[in-house]
């Protein structure tokens, strides 16, 4: 499943590494892409979106929104 998070508080490569590492602590195989300019974090993972959101929050960043996409293209919103 692909999950796209909108994250506030990221401003540098250290932030990118912190968010990436926090997600990979929950799923070592996760594919993580961080776009600092937009605040978007895209994750390909089998873990539930809520668990990954909690990991980002615990790393000190604020998730303001999230959307999920199954491999079939379906989408939804995580609150």
Automatic annotation (TrEMBL):
GO molecular function, one term: metal ion binding
Keyword vocabulary terms for this entry: Metal-binding
Domain of life where this protein originates: Bacteria
Domain HMA as annotated: residue spans: 1-64
Protein's UniProt keywords contain Lipid metabolism: no
Name by which UniProt lists this protein: Heavy metal binding protein
């Amino acid at each position: 499943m692909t999950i796209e998070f909108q994250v506030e508080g990221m401003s540098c490569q250290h932030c990118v590494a912190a968010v990436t590492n926090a997600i990979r602590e929950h799923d070592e195989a996760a594919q993580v892409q961080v776009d600092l300019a937009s605040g978007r974090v895209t994750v390909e993972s089998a873990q539930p979106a809520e668990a990954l959101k909690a990991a980002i929050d615990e790393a000190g960043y604020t998730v303001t929104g999230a959307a999920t996409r199954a491999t079939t293209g379906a989408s939804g919103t995580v609150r």
